[in-house]
Amino acid sequence: MRSPRLAGRFELEGGTLFSGIDLELAAGEWTCLLGPSGCGKSTILRLIAGLETGGRFEGEIRSAERHAAYMAQSDMLAPWLDVTDNVMLGARLRGEAPDRARAEALIARVGLAADAHKRPAELSGGMRQRAALARTLMEDRPVALLDEPFSALDAATRATCQELAFELLEGRTVLLVTHDPAEAARLGHQVHVMGQGRVLHSMRPEGAPIRDPAGGDTLAAQAALFTEVRAA
Amino acid sequence: MNRAFQVLVPFAGILLLWYLAIWIRVPFGGDPLPNFILPAPERVAETLWTSRALLFEHSLTTLGEILLGILFGVGLGMATAFGFIASPWLRRQGQPVMVISQAIPVFALAPLLTLWFGYGIWSKIAMTTLIIYFPVTVAFYDGLRRTDRHLLDLARVMGAQPRRTLWLIRAPAALPALGSGLKLAAVYAPIGAVIGEWVGAAHGLGYLMLLANGRAKTDLMFAAVIVLACLAVAMYFAISALAGRLARWRPERD
Known about the structure:
The structure holds two protein chains of two kinds. By secondary structure, chain A is of the alpha/beta class. Chain A is built from eight helices and nine strands. In chain A, helix 6 links the parallel strand 6 and strand 7. The two termini of chain A are about 35 Å apart. By secondary structure, chain B is mainly α. The chains are: A alpha/beta, B mainly alpha. Chains A and B meet through strand 5 and helix 3 of A and helix 7 and helix 8 of B.
């Protein structure tokens, strides 16, 4: 498949949410969309995912529908299913026979082997996002669309989950929507800062991700992005 | 201990009021209320024991009507809710009809149901089905409609077949709401069955009440009411337990 791309404007009832956006996700890279709440970054992700947005998009779009896996701040785990059944939910929804051995291997890979039979309510926030990550990997799609998946986690858990996600999603085309400059500085091959209905600033931070959160280059990139976000 | 106390206190209170009502005229120079107006509790207890075979036999009829009515009402209600979710056309056509049908008091239909379904158990089952159909449909439909948007988004991105989304996501997510509908059904169902029996029957607790009333056997009537109340309470607790199981994955349940 060709890289997902979106170019155009988006109208909501109250007015224009964004315009003049031209965004392409480079294959095999992490593209970060950074910006304040309500700037339209999640809408861009939903358009690329082929989801309803409640508004009107005008322009060109090469959506990743049928090629993408989706992770969000809400872990989207079905509360009545245990971890294993949640990981296999996609296959069941498509009417395919779920590959239990592969699901169990992925659950072990994210460190939840001992919790595979627990329901989401019995897991911590970090464990739930790891289960969601296992489900994302189970889908085995070339594109991963991540809508602030780590923003509800505490700092240490967030760092661990970022590392795990980066490692396991290697080689896939990733769009990460976030409001956290540190996260973008750490994970993005390419970072776009959004605000005032457009992309205000684009940069490629020094070095290859995943970067050391305490490294000099990372901190410099974080500081630069922070300045841009504040101005947005 | 505390729990036993919670049951005993209201029970004692009811008995006290009961005796008070019987003896209220005495201090003013009147007589205690006669048995055919308000029998004493011990007399009702005696009738409960001496007529136990009769009461048991008629309870079985009423219980059967209640259970079958719940079965049909819940089945029809769930099917309707699924239909409304799956087909917008059906929803547009069906919803007004359902609301209008609820404007007709079901009790007014009882003689008609007896005419159509006869004096046997089927007119009572029809009555019970009708009375619980609406609350079950509304509760389950609301549950199906209010599925977590995030989960539906996820299913969409996963490329789910709509029928499977309904069955694997919407339906299980709506089970706690269905549980609420079932609890209402448990409360309404005995009412439906007894009203049906009042209109015309040869069996059941409702029939027994009318019979006892006609012969001024007020103690037997009270006994039948007590049995019916016990039946209804047992039904409610059984169905509440079932509803609790349907919602057992809910962390916020009490």
